[in-house]
Design goal:
By secondary structure, this protein is mainly α. The protein is 91% helix and 0% strand. The chain starts with a helix and ends with a helix.
């Protein structure tokens, strides 16, 4: 009788072991996929925050150290505007981590194009937050430049919101 029970127990364990193992493996794989998705989402959110802060800081610093002085002297020309944009881009690139730069390139393509668009949007946002009327801004720049900057800012904001929504939907 004892041999029969031992044989029966061995048969049950032998039959159940692959089933239980498969279940545990599937459970571990799903947990790993969920952890990976959460990690990617967390990293993406961290990179987006880092990028937004770097852009805001670069625009503020360029405005404080370069643009304000030229405006007071009355020499803020279209060429100076281009120089200010270039200075903001260089400052922004210098303050973004290599991992965040890789994120931008993998998610959006050309990093300089992406940051230039975001810098233009940030300039507009800061002008609006300081109460500078957009009409005054448009009068100081050529109409083509103002329209292009406005369109670029709107496009950038749209792309960023779409990217954030995609990242959030993948995380769920």
């Amino acid at each position: 009788m004892q041999d029969f029970l031992q044989t029966l127990l061995t048969a049950v364990v032998t039959a159940a072991l692959p089933i239980v193992s498969a279940y545990v493996i599937t459970l571990v794989q799903k947990a790993a996929e969920k952890a990976k998705a959460e990690t990617e989402s967390t990293n993406a959110q961290r990179y987006i925050g880092e990028i937004a802060e770097a852009i805001s800081d670069a625009v503020s610093a360029t405005s404080q150290t370069y643009v304000d002085a030229l405006k007071q002297a009355g020499t803020f020309t279209p060429e100076a505007q281009k120089e200010a944009a270039q200075k903001a881009l260089v400052a922004c690139l210098a303050s973004i981590s290599p991992a965040a730069q890789e994120f931008i390139e993998s998610a959006y393509g050309d990093i300089k194009e992406y940051l230039t668009t975001k810098i233009e949007a940030e300039v507009r946002k800061q002008k609006l937050s300081y109460g500078i009327p957009i009409a005054a801004v448009q009068e100081s720049a050529s109409d083509t430049t103002a329209v292009a900057a406005s369109a670029a800012a709107a496009t950038a904001a749209s792309y960023l919101q779409t990217a954030i929504n995609q990242i959030e939907s993948k995380a769920e």
